Amino acid sequence: MAFEPDNELLQDFLIEAGELLNGLDQQLIELEQSPDDADRLNSVFRAFHTIKGGAGFLEVHPLVEVCHRAEDIFNLLRNHEITMNSRIMDVMLQVIDVLNDMFDALRGGQYPEDVSKAFLKEIEGLAHQDDAPAPAAPAEPAPSEASARAEPTPATEPMADEDDAFDRMLADLDAAESESPSASGGADDLISDEEFESLLDELHGKGKFQAPTPEADADNAEEASSAADSDEITDEEFEAVLDGLYGKGKGPTAAAPKADEPAEAAAPAPSPQPAAAKSEPPKPAAKPAESTKPEAKAKGADAHKAPVETTVRVDTERLDSIMNLVGELVLVRNRMNTLKSTFENEEIASVIATLDMVTSDLQGAVMKTRMQPVKKVFGRFPRVVRDTARTLGKEVNLELEGEDTDLDKNLVEALADPLIHLVRNAVDHGIEMPDDREANGKDRAGTVLLSAAQEGDHIRLSIQDDGSGMDAEVLRRKGVEKGVVDPDTAERLTDQECFELILHPGFSTKDQISDISGRGVGMDVVKTAITKLSGTISIDSVQGEGTQINIKVPLTLAILPTLMVIVSGRKYAIPLSVVNEIFEMADKEVNVVDGQSTITVRDRAVPLFRMTDWLALRGEKPGTRCETDQVVMVQHGAQLMALVVDSVIGQEEVVIKPLGELLRVVDGFAGATITGDGHIALILDLPGMVRRNTGRGRQRLRSVA
Amino acid sequence: MNQAMEKTRTAEEYDEELEAQDQGPLSRWVNFTVDDETYALNVLDVQEVLRDAEITPIPGAPDAIIGIINLRGNVVTVVDARTFFGLEEKAWDENSRIMVIEVASGEIVGLVVDSVAEVIALPQTVVDQAMMAVADDRARHILGIVPQDEKLIILVDMKSLSEISTP
After folding, report:
1. At residue A519, does pLDDT exceed 80?
2. Is the minimum CB–CB distance between B165 and chain A shorter than 8 Å?
3. Which pLDDT value is given to residue A681?
4. Do B107 and A660 touch (CB under 8 A)?
5. How far is B42 from chain A (nearest CA, A)?
6. Distance between the two ends of chain A, CA-based, in angstroms?
7. Which residues numbered 556-595 in A keep a CB inside 8 Å of some CB on B?
8. N or C: which end of chain A has fewer CB within 10 A?
9. How big is chain B by its Cα radius of gyration, in Å?
10. B77 and A663 in contact by Cβ < 8 A?
11. Nearest-CA neighbor of A198 among A311, A314, A304, A313?
């Protein structure tokens, strides 16, 4: 196969993986200092895994081969099957160098060279240590595969391609011309001048090609007046030719709208003269000539740019700064609204009302500029599914739903990797082998349904497969075996909580390690990525019927819907995404179980925490129970928690302002925001808050759940 | 909220500067006091001085960090100079000021001081000499000490403020 990756995808990969690669160097060195740092081993392992995944998708096999082997070694390292030594370190640093070379090659548009077998062997050899029993050599694809791989594409090929296209175009034009003898030769040149660009653009994506020859231009000038008449006709005729060639008249040309109808008629057998007669009622010849000529000339002078563009490429940084400014404006608007009542002036009130409205519209409009259809991510999946299914010998159909759902550009990008993991997992773990499916009375081909939909201010993405589903009991057992939960806790987990065990680091039920999944990194990475986007992930599964994974992410990351509460007289914002319900403290009974206050909500014991304790300043006394206290029920992972606050103010959409570097060390705050009255409210980061305030948190929480 | 620039330069000062020009290039320093000591920060490091701002405290923050303020829509961390210099805390009074300065990380930080006096001009040669005299690693924020009008002015560099949260 030839090396023609989607350019944009390749660039994305180079940037993302390039960063990882840069980080790897540093991390390896640090590992040398502290070879037993489990976190670091994990992160190095993941970095290789991620690079491998991306390279696999782009079919850069030499990269995959190296990363795969490096990953194997780190897998053994983190499982303590072998220990870090200087030999491993030396080889790994060599691996980094090799990878860097490959990246350089890719950046230069070259397919990287295959790595020498000896080097690959050397990496594999690291698995065998004198002081440790040699584990089985990692499963590898047959070496012969490598030799049958893509050949490097010469850098000159694109040029040749364009030349070919040019020739082909000319030939096609000639053919079209001969089929419609009525059109004049001069007109042909004129049109090609304009339309070549769009055609080439369609062919090559970018207008690199410096189209018409000087002669063509000269012809233009000469024939300008005489060909004016046929100008209009051939415009449309050209559309017809294009349609004939490329199926659809996509070219965004000036003539396209009016040419649509005749083009359809003309497509099967070009007969431009009558078609044009229909759309262009008889007119003085000079008139159309005037209207079209300047355009053609302007284009010629414009170094033959692509025809009339309706879109502008804008640096996302610029969009971000506009977004920030709008955020400021929203805050000013909010303050104005608060002040409105103090003026008692109708005129001012009405001005403020208008400002309010315009600001809201502006905010919406700016948000829209950042929106992209989720299609951009979904577009990758047919390939992912097909390749994965083929490797595994499975039959899988992928169905896509709601591809046109718009969401924030940052989100679209950030969601790509987690979704690829999930879809691969669905094919690998979810869908059974065709024979097994048949035996169970299912279609031989499994189905993976990927859907996106907007639900209020959230986007719901779901990955659903009709595979074997998950067995809660097996997960429970595995969880205990892997030390993810202790046996007592495991007993008390609900099925849903069992499913969510797979989100823990190092949890994989697949015994066989494959190229695709099964190392227990995927889901952990997914969970982390989704949480970072202030999204949630939930898993539902019915054994024998399939699994559904739901992801909920906010529509945009710039503006956060929050619940404003007061604790110790200060305002705090709790992200609304974690809030389940709010109720009065007064009518609830608090019990203390094992030193932990709990409150019973609908027959369920929920751990209770006083925010006055959590958010106490130095020297402040812990709060006491108060009749007016209110309780905010929040969701922390699968765990419900009841937070006691002084009072609840209400819902407010806030713009997140990051806290300074100095406050990086302070856990529990996602940032700050400036409220309508100009004050600052801190935005709580629930996971951080829990981490900070309940050292033994998780275990204790589980035990009262 | 009352945020005002306190950047005044009197005629006398200007005259002094002109006189001092004989001694070579000048550098300007913002004088401020903390616990009866006079300190000075290079004027280039000081963005503005606030008379008053509502400081929102951060639960769980390091001792020296008093909280955050809203500086025209930006959230700025505020540090107490007294705690940073290892002195007793003192309540905010009418002379207290927040000096808005840039620290090593490029972050903008507010520094609460007892008072801000004036901008003085020092000949670069005097500053250079003072800087050489101090080579104490324990007080890296102290650049040097300059005698001025029968008192000592401690020239400081607050760039190291960015390290307070990484003990």
Report:
1. no
2. yes
3. 92
4. yes
5. 22
6. 55
7. 570
8. N
9. 16
10. yes
11. A304
Q: Which CATH code for domain A316-370?
A: 1.10.287
Which tokens go with A268? 């099967």
Tell if the CB–CB gap between B75 and A661 is shorter than 8 Å.
no
Q: Mapped to the 3 state alphabet, what secondary structure does A187-199 carry?
A: HHHHHHHHHHHHH
Distance CA A631, CA A643 (A): 5
pLDDT digits (tens, 9 = 90+) for A398-419: 888 888 888 887 788 888 888 8
pLDDT of A292 strictly over 60: no
DSSP state of A158: H
Q: Domain-by-domain residue ranges, chain A?
A: 7-147, 157-301, 316-370, 373-554, 559-704
Please, are residues B75 and A656 in contact by the beta-carbon 8 Å criterion? Answer: no
Residue type, A339: L
**What tens digit of pLDDT does each residue of A584-634 get?**
877 677 888 887 888 888 888 888 888 888 888 877 776 566 667 888 999
Give the whole-angstrom CA distance, residue A120 versus residue B157.
Answer: 54
Residues of chain B with pLDDT under 70: 1-24, 132-140, 162-167
Give contacts of A 366-405 with B, CB under 8 A: none
How is residue A649 written in tokens? 């103010």
Identify the residue among A662, A666, A684, A694 best suited for mutation to test binding to B, counting B beta carbons within 10 A and taking the highest.
Answer: A662
Which residues of chain A lie closer than 8 angstroms to B107, CB-CB? 660-662
Contacts of A667 in chain B (CB under 8 A): 60
CA dist A380 and A385 (Å) reads 9
Q: How far apart are CA A417 and CA A410, in angstroms?
A: 13
* Domain residue limits, chain B: 11-163
Whether domain A373-554 has CATH 3.30.565.10: the reply is yes
Does position A380 have pLDDT exceeding 90, yes or no?
A: no
Chain B, window 36-55: residues with a beta carbon less than 8 angstroms from a chain A beta carbon = 54
Q: Flag if B105 and A661 touch (Cβ within 8 Å).
A: yes
At which residue do the structure tokens 């690669």 appear? Answer: A21
B11-163 has which fold?
A: OB fold (Dihydrolipoamide Acetyltransferase, E2P) (2.40.50)
Cβ–Cβ gap B54/A692 under 8 Å: no
The amino acid present at A420, given as its one-letter code, is I
Of all residues in chain A, the one with the smallest CA distance to B74 is A657
A679–B59 CB contact, under 8 Å: no
CA proximity to A535, closest of A404, A677, A624, A418: A418
- When pLDDT is cut at 50, 70 and 90, the band that residue A133 belongs to is very low
Residues comprising chain B, all counted: 167
**Tokens representing A123?**
């990496």
For residue A424, the distance in angstroms to the closest alpha carbon of chain B comes to 41
Mean pLDDT of chain A: 71
Q: Locate the chain B residue with the closest alpha carbon to A655.
A: B73
A227, A184 Cβ separation under 8 angstroms:
yes
Hey, what CATH topology would domain A559-704 get?
SH3 type barrels. (2.30.30)
Cβ contact A391:A516 at 8 Å: yes
- What are the tens digits of pLDDT across the range A88-101? 877 888 888 888 88
Cα–Cα distance for residue pair A394/A437, rounded to 1 Å: 10
A674 and chain B: CB distance < 8 Å anywhere? yes
In this complex, the residue of A570, A678, A692 whose CB is nearest that of residue B60 is: A692
Top mean-pLDDT range of A70-74, A162-166, A427-431, B107-111: B107-111
Alpha helices, H only, B81-161: 81-84, 124-133
CATH of domain A7-147: 1.20.120.160
- Are the beta carbons of A680 and B54 separated by less than 8 Å? yes
Q: What is the pLDDT of residue A208?
A: 42
Minimal-distance CA residue of chain B relative to A679 = B70
Distance from the A505 Cα atom to the nearest Cα atom in chain B, whole angstroms: 28
